[in-house]
């Protein structure tokens, strides 16, 4: 946040959207590069990392895999399918500030992992799609909690462009798609929007 003197002795805070935009691109770009490096190492190891750090539902040691499973993917095609929406949604959330972004990301991550651990099917779950759904859900609902017309307009545009992905929260005949991760991530994103909503100002009480 930069400070500037407006000429009459008052100093005002100037929150630069350009700085946050640059920070969002760098952060999300760096995160996707990290995912690509992990996938390259995983590929060279015949994806043995998935068996170690992928999320195994209802297993005692699988609780710790909640922290690692979004960082792993089945292959580069799987990673690429998540990369673009992850960058777009993450960048848009980052425009609201680092605290907002980290809160939305954390609840999306945790919600996705808990849903898979609690109600996931058999096998090992990997992939960042739960984060995609969480950030998307956050963007869709935050404007209504914030009563911000431009955020509501953005949510409408995003829904028209990407709304079809919401079908991914429903149980599907495609067993290789973890709808549990999608649903949990989306719930986490909504919870983050609720927690970050503006608090009503306390009304002054006069004696």
TrEMBL record:
GO biological process: proteolysis
The organism's place on the tree of life at top rank: Bacteria
Keyword Cell membrane in annotation: no
Subcellular location: Membrane
Signal peptide: none
GO molecular function: peptidase activity
Domain Peptidase S54 rhomboid: from-to ranges: 63-198
Transmembrane segments annotated in the record for this chain: 24-42, 87-110, 116-140, 152-170, 176-196
Gene3D superfamilies in the record: Rhomboid-like (1.20.1540.10)
Pfam families: Rhomboid
Membrane topology recorded in Swiss-Prot or TrEMBL: Multi-pass membrane protein
UniProt keyword list: Hydrolase, Membrane, Protease, Transmembrane, Transmembrane helix
Protein name as catalogued: Rhomboid family intramembrane serine protease
Organism, scientific name: Arthrobacter gyeryongensis
